[in-house]
Amino acid sequence: MGLGGECDSLAYSHDVPFPMGAVNACAMSSAWEGMPNVLLETSATSLPVVATDVGGNREVAFHEKTEFLAPPKDLHALAQAMLHLMSLPQEERKHMGERARRYVEENFSLERVVDRWERLYREHLLKKSVL
Fold it and tell me: Directed axis angle between helix 90-108 and helix 110-127, to 10°?
């Protein structure tokens, strides 16, 4: 498929910005996901992503706008999406990463998540007539 020698698998790291700064894009080949923190972290560093269309990935990744999504368990489609991403001009990949970062900042910042949790608790307490 033409990816040999072009891809590296990075080891687990607590220092997310370091490995993210050393790559041009991220590929995530999960067969299933909940809420994919790795996509949030990757998007927060303005990297474009290729991921499988599983679980919560679609909540974070917008096909052809911030990332490319491939069907799960389809290695050929995943490789094609990776090749397509890397064939885009660097400026276009950069814009994809910037759009992803803005989306994460607007929807998954600590302040935004705390607001959502507070709203959920208030709604629950109102239903229980505690408030």
Answer: 40
Domains and CATH numbers, the chain: 17-127 (3.40.50.2000)
3-class DSSP state of 88: coil
**What does 32-57 look like in DSSP terms, one character per residue?**
--SS-HHHHHHHHTT--EEEES-TTH
**In this structure, how many other beta carbons lie within 10 angstroms of the beta carbon of residue 60?**
25
Counting residues of the chain whose pLDDT is more than 70, the rounded percentage is: 82
Residue 44's Cα: distance from chain center in Å?
8
Yes or no: say if 116 and 65 are a contact pair by the CB < 8 Å rule.
no
Tokens of 31: 């067969």
Instruction: Compute the C-alpha angle 118/124/130, nearest 5°.
Output: 100
- With cut-offs at 50, 70 and 90, classify the pLDDT of residue 3: low
pTM attached to this predicted model? 0.73
